[in-house]
Amino acid sequence: xxxxxxxxxxxxxxxxxxxxxxxxxxxxxxxxxxxxxxxxxxxxxxxxxxxxxxxxxxxxxxxxxxxxxxxxxxxxxxxxxxxxxxxxxxxxxxxxxxxxxxxxxxxxxxxxxxx
Length: 115
Known about the structure:
The protein is mostly helical. It has two domains: 2-81; 84-115, no CATH class. It has two helices and two strands; from the N terminus they run H-H-E-E. Strand 1 and strand 2 form a beta hairpin. It starts with a helix and ends in a 15-residue tail after the last strand. Mean pLDDT is 86; it is low at 82-88.
């Protein structure tokens, strides 16, 4: 029983890490979008920094993939089904589109009550 609790805590920590990485991706997308917009309205070439942002996003996606593999490994070791972090089991907020865990009542992004 204690081992199961420890493994569940590990999975939850990894899921929180993944959430943080996704937030970083959103920030990078925002910066890239701003650069692209400014370049477009000023009719100038895209800022070379955009390549660095794209590289950062690619790296963040790789980190997410590795963390998802960790969850699969933990799930395989315990013989339990994979954690409910799969997108198909998430509740999507009708207000902001944020994916939330299926057991939450309110959106973690905007606070809207979830169905």
